Amino acid sequence: MTTQTLIYLIVGATFALYIGIAIWARASTTGEFYAAGRGVHPVMNGMATAADWMSAASFISMAGLIAFVGYDNSTYLMGWTGGYVLLACLLAPYLRKFGKYTVPEFIGDRFYSQSARIIAVICLIVASVTYVIGQMTGVGVTFARFLQVEASTGLYIGAAIVFAYAVLGGMKGITYTQVAQYIVLITAYTIPAIFISLQLTGTVLPPLGLFSDSVSSGTPLLVELDGLITDLGFASYTGHHTNTLNMVLFTLSLMIGTAGLPHVIIRFFTVPKVADARWSAGWALVFIALLYLTAPAVGAMARFNLVNTIQTGEVGTPEGNLAYADVPTWFTTWEQTGLIKWEDKNEDGRIQFYNDKNTAFETQAEAWGWRGNELTVNADILVLANPEIAALPGWVIALVAAGGLAAALSTAAGLLLAISSAISHDLIKGTINPNISEGGELMAARVSMAAAIAVATYLGLNPPGFAAQTVALAFGLAAASIFPALMMGIFFKRINNVGASLGMLAGLLFTVIYIFVYKGWFFLPGTSQFPDTPEYWVFGISPLSIGAIGAVVNFAVAYFASQATQEPPQEIQVLVESIRVPRGAGAAIDH
Fold this sequence. Notes:
By secondary structure, this protein is mainly α. It is 68% helix and 1% strand. The chain folds into two domains: 3-302 and 389-474, Sodium/glucose cotransporter (Up-down Bundle); 305-387, no CATH class. It has helices at residues 3-24, 30-35, 42-53, 56-69, 74-98, 103-110, 114-146, 151-201, 206-209, 221-230, 244-259, 262-265, 274-292, 295-309, 329-335, 359-367, 381-389, 394-432, 438-461, 470-491, 497-519, 546-563, 570-580, and strands at residues 340-342, 375-377. Helix 7 runs parallel beside helix 21 (497-519), helix 17 (381-389) runs antiparallel to helix 18 and helix 21 runs antiparallel to helix 22 (546-563). The protein is globular and about 80 Å long.
């Protein structure tokens, strides 16, 4: 059986499973649509949360980002993991005890303000729509390669699958589908990693293999990798080469952005009681760790295999470059997607892959007749192409295809549910038509979900110019707007409606404007006076890291505005106390 046939069979089987679960778990009430009837077991919710959390960015992009940069890009690993710990410890149990369906509903009730609720809806939609673009793009990339269709066709197929189980089942259908998707994605991620770790180091567990000796040389794998890439003029894999302040701020932005992402927070509204929210958070961390502990090994081993694949002799010499006529099949297959490109600049028929920005190495390269780096590799292909680069069996390649799609679809569904719930529950029922019937609200929720899927599909087909960085930017937006409001709502009784509203607006606007200025969107195209380079950034702070500063702005504005205005009513202060006090840890304030 050919690899392509296996891909069709395995991906098709997973899609049939997702749709079957949606039919079985069809939501019949708003409680089931928004919160799965609050009846999900903590272990199952932990697994669903892990799938919801581990998006295409985690499955496809994270290892690739680490692979091409090394230690400095461990910020993604630290930020996303640390953020989940913040969410589990500081927010999830308290929000579950409050007993609402959505994040804006909590903010509206806690700050006794419809305006605050609407501002929270705006912040949620901005962050979630920005994030969902990356997921839909990931669906298109994966389909384009593995199902051999146009990226647009793949996007339509992915949107149809999400429509089938999200519109029909709401949170109930999404929850049980995400359990299946987690099993698919973690299997797809770890099995190839185990194979490759065995090939390169003889070690079964990839995290241990990362620090083991290479089978080929007997030296530590990371030492050999450092030697390979420095011989090509690249920075060492294990060294620290970036601005430390920016690295810290970016990690912090990812952490608090993670804790402020609504689609993850609402997962904790699905368990029966507060104690279950804590347990499901713990289980989710275990399930997430299985992938996150493996990702650094996948990244390093992928970079190792990629360099060795296109070298036939001594690395960093003219004789070491592979002739294009001899490239393996996986190379030409991925060329068709446009995610790997070769340009024969010196017309010698060989692939010159090196760092042509390294002045010292470039001088030697010119002496050899090289005319610049000829190979461009999109970091997103490394996890997906890794089994092919390592010449693993066809069924492993098919499994990775199914895993990549499961990761993107599971997170896309969670984001779309957060958006549709904010529209139907917070805008329509909470503001426009408070007297809407149960059936009417359920219909509004389904229509909102369908509309959100349509918008997400359009943005996936026509992504903004910043699409490659949308995930990181989404975390910055959530960090600057939603996270501070939730933290202050739970732990600071003195923060009032004026402070919370102004804080969210200030944090969001500050972050958006900073990003827009340096990404060239604030002015007409081509007229930006602020190049996106470190020497022009304020205090050297990257637009991708500005969310942490935006959060500080949010906290400061909220504090001073609250101090200058009337303190919250006594009943609100009592409510805040009741959320924090651990009395009756099994209880929750439900609708």
